[in-house]
Amino acid sequence: QVQLVESGGGLVQAGGSLRLSCVASGFTFSSYWMSWYRQAPGKERELVAAIRRGGSTNYVDSVKGRFTISRDNAKNTVYLEMNSLKPEDTAVYYCKAARIEFWGQGTQVTVSS
């Protein structure tokens, strides 16, 4: 069955960095676009970044220039490198495979001011 296991979250001061990882299993990872979403308290889940099979990427405007999504198909893993973090980046972060309706448990990112 499909599994998505996110890790790497934590508490960091504003301006700091974190690197999130998501290990996938149960499907052919290299064949799927992968995305990172986030959900802040009281807000809807939003798409943060996506990476296509060939490696091209896109980002929501609020994280452009600060976040980098990447993938390692040999390790079935997608990453989100987050720099210059802001308090408004505080949320639970989830990875997702396109066209597969499954969510992992997410990883909490908290940015203090």
Please tag this protein with its features.
mainly beta, 113 residues, 6-stranded mixed β-sheet
What does this molecule look like?
By secondary structure, the chain is mainly β. 0% of the residues lie in helices and 50% in strands. The protein has no helices and ten strands. The strands form two sheets. A six-stranded mixed beta sheet has the order 2-10-9-4-5-6, with no helix packed on it. The protein has a four-stranded antiparallel beta sheet with strand order 1-3-8-7, with no helix packed on it. A hairpin with a 6-residue loop joins β4 (34-39) and β5. The radius of gyration is 13 Å and the shape is globular. It starts with a strand and ends with a strand. The model has no long low-confidence stretch (mean pLDDT 97).
| Strand order in the sheet with the most strands | 2-10-9-4-5-6
Q: Which regions contain 5 or more consecutive residues with pLDDT less than 50?
A: none
* Morphology: globular
Helix content: under 10%
Distance between the termini: 40 Å
Q: Taking all residues together, what is the mean pLDDT?
A: 97
Radius of gyration (CA) equals 13 Å
Strand content: over 45%
Class computed from helices, strands and strand pairing: mainly beta
| Biggest sheet features | 6 strands, mixed
The count of strands amounts to 10
The multimeric state of the shown protein is single chain
- Count of DSSP-assigned helices: 0
* Element pattern in H and E: EEEEEEEEEE
Summarize the structure.
With 113 residues, the chain is an all-beta fold.
